[in-house]
Amino acid sequence: MESFTDVPRIKESSDIGQQQGRVVTDEEWLQKWKMRQIGFHKEQGHPILRKYLDVLLNGRSGLRIFFPLCGKAVEMKWLADMGHYVVGVELSECALKEFFTEHDLSYSEETIPGISGAKVFKSTSGNISLYCCSIYDLSSTIAGRFDGIWDRGSLVAINPCDREHYANLMLSLMERSCCYLLVTVAYDSNKHKGPPFYVPDSEIKSLFGKLSPLRL
């Protein structure tokens, strides 16, 4: 398994206490979508994914690629159009429905056995499945394992107290040949309470040190 991160570098701060205790509730996240406070959503494909697409794919075709906290990321359609199978997870149902509507994709809606209130939206073409539930309710038993993970805005969005749980989940979803492409943010964490949260390189190494090679 391979991990790769790409962010501008700053001197790491030893004081991230202001963020460490920050907890974003599910309701707060859903409210952002309701109030259209979604500046994190990009209408164009992310330049880092384009830059490192060859690293993610590694010459392989027909991959299963996972988008944690996917929102309505346009890159999902882009990779699906390349012939890959895309799976995402997102708490906001409106975000997932907007994805299909904005890309003029027909889809079906199903409940997920074993997860109360959860749904999965599947494109009629069969190569996009988006789960509407807490990411922590997902497992390899439900969603399978993945050849690639595009983590742009997920690790930096989850609560700092949940990072170890999150990392263990990501590791459990990876095939042995999986490439985990991670985008983080770098800034003075004393000036912004997050999210997005600042995740120091040292913590990334601690969380994902099992991956080999781990390139930062």
UniProtKB/TrEMBL annotation:
Belongs to the class I-like SAM-binding methyltransferase superfamily. TPMT family. It catalyses: S-adenosyl-L-methionine + a thiopurine = S-adenosyl-L-homocysteine + a thiopurine S-methylether. SUPFAM superfamilies: S-adenosyl-L-methionine-dependent methyltransferases. It comes from Platysternon megacephalum (big-headed turtle). Keywords: Cytoplasm, Methyltransferase, S-adenosyl-L-methionine, Transferase. One of its GO terms (biological process) is methylation. GO terms for cellular component: cytoplasm. It is an enzyme of class 2 (transferase). Its EC number is 2.1.1.67. This is thiopurine S-methyltransferase. It is found in: Cytoplasm. InterPro entries: SAM-dependent_MTases_sf (IPR029063), Thiopurine_S-MeTrfase (IPR025835), TPMT (IPR008854).
